[in-house]
Amino acid sequence: MTPLSKLVPVSLLFVLSLVNTSYANNWESLRQGMIEEIEGDVRETSAYIDKEALDERVMEAMGRVPRHEFVPAELRPHAYKNRPLPIGHGQTISQPYIVALMTDLLKPKPGHRVLELGTGSGYQAAILAELTDRVFSIEIIDALGDEAAARLQRLGYKNIETRVGDGYYGWEEEAPFDTIVVTAASGQIPPPLISQLKPGGRMVIPVGGRFQVQQLMLVEKAVDGKLTVRQILPVRFVPLTGDRAPGDSGTGSH
Question: Does residue 217 sit in helix, strand or coil?
Fold first, then answer.
């Protein structure tokens, strides 16, 4: 006969296993619902973005990354709603549709090196890490930067390097970059970022002040260094902050 003292721990482990499986299935279901909402938003904004669907690789990455790991515990039940959520320090994790769209506009590929300004929770960096070789992410708020670094390490992202600093200046030691994404609104495109963008590269950045209409902009740098700037759609982001942030804008969060 098996002693009762041995049965209880085994039974408890079995119950915990069932609970964990249930939670995992629930997150998966919620994540799929988020994907469907993103697809709906893409169709609704197709006149702005000139496409009816985003890159399949981008959508697959959105379906893999656990957004609930990137929001405060009390907001986890809302993690897969298609809207921004507060992450503390006056910053937010962006709406999933916007994260997917910005990623799609970058056209990330294996082998690419990406610069992100505004680590925030680390969610955008995690999406990019699923699609590229290396991600370099800068956050100006110490607490957010430290938390994101620990979170990304815990989740096993080995191809993301983070640091705390003023993103206006980019990351000169690691330049040039195939793509650059800015997750906070700037009054203008910072010149250091243009110089650190590789010829043939793409940059996505929201432009506009805190009390102005912001526009999501796509910047393409030709092989000869010539820039093409295209306005995508109106957006609302936290402002870029820092000593040299243009206008009332610096390195906010995503």
Answer: strand
